[in-house]
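User: I'm putting together notes for a lab meeting next week and I want to include a structural view of one of the chains we've been expressing. I don't have a solved structure, so I'd like a prediction I can at least talk through. The sequence is below, exactly as it appears in our construct file.
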Amino acid sequence: RAAASKHQRELMDDAARHGVITDGGGLRFEGLPLQRLRDRLLGTYSAMPEPRPLGGRPPQRKKRWLVQDVWRYGTMPMFGGNPKTGKSTLVIDLTSALLTPGRRFLDHFEVPDLAEHERDIYLINPETPVDDFEDEMEAQGLGYGSEVTVDHLEELGGAHVFDVTDPAKYDLWAHRFAFCESCDGTDDRTPFIVIVDGLTAILQAAGKGVEHYGLWYAAFRRLMRQVDVPSALVVGHNTLSGGHLMGGAEAQAGPDGLINYWSENPDRPASRRWLSVVPRMGGNPVGPLEVRLDAGRLRAVTGPGNRESAPMEPKDDTLDVALQVAAY
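Assistant: Thanks for the context. Below is the predicted structure for the 328-residue chain, given as structure tokens.
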């Protein structure tokens, strides 16, 4: 576009405003996804709100918890764990708690009931075998007919398909996340929550390393805002010591806080596991709390005994003060 003449740019803008836009398979974009694409091409974003004066926060933006003290509504934290700690099992427990009235996350953290129109969660599974993932979902009460949509990326061609730093894939998901029946622009709806269970696998499949955590998260956050998804969670890998996300300061600078889940020894499946929450703003640090598998469920161990035996959070000697501040 920068090299085009004024007349050529006018023709391009006219095509962006009025032309038919399709995906790679020839499927036409309609409704809100189409308008979002037009806005991206034209740089208009006409739906952007006016600047809000201090104290002018709308009532619906008052503090609200999806999971008390763990995950606030309207935020997009990262959930990091060292390898083989059972991150997917914990994600499924979280999803079940969000959709099952009266159920607590890890049998400990209160989960306020979602409104009927909010009971719509979209799970992205990049790497766990389909049967294993769905077996665990059924074991946690998320069988056929539950209010959760799962995309197993292996069935869509591989984990690389969710590399939203690629503009074509970004647009594909902007379209895929929008559901409609008549698709005339009046009945579009998008999920209330999106959970991506495995960023490392996505980047590896796309030929990228953990240094891309920050860039991918920034693109994902933009995508969620563009398709009006208020809350999301991204699962990534921590260092082997479990102390912080791989990718360094860039990985931790963007997310709305960090949920840490680590084991004492990644090479020993039966080793003890711990959970902590490092909020960005507006919350109190949580944990570390021990987490145990009990009667098929993950449960946080509470009480004086747990507090006395809880370890300090894993440390990494290479962290400097700036990185520790960035985590908050």
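A couple of points you could mention at the meeting. DSSP finds ten helices and eleven strands in the chain. Residues 5 and 11 are 10 Å apart (CA to CA).

User: Perfect, that's what I needed.
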